[in-house]
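ugh ok fine here u go
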Amino acid sequence: MAAASRALSALRFDTIPRLPPVIALSSRSNSNRTSISHLHRQLYGRLYPVLLVKTDGSTIRLRYKEPKRILLLPLDSNTLPEAERKARLRRQFPSKPKAGPEDSFESIDLGTYERFWKK
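structure:
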């Protein structure tokens, strides 16, 4: 019986030397790493609060599948008055700037630039 108790005492965990804990290092050591880029996901795992703006200007708070702040509904241009529709088209497609008079080189004094082409 004494031999058995000595064998059991040798197997106690106090006599086995302990190893230091292994520290696992990750490439993402903290939450600031994720602020570098956005998440490349097709589907998000939750719904996000979003402000929906209707064409008449009224707003509705709803839950949307992507994290956005504001959603605007498209405006139907057929329902607008003719003057407002033309004004919107002018703002959307502005006219090209008119060409001004061309500068002539007759009024330039070449003596002031002579130092740049002398060797």
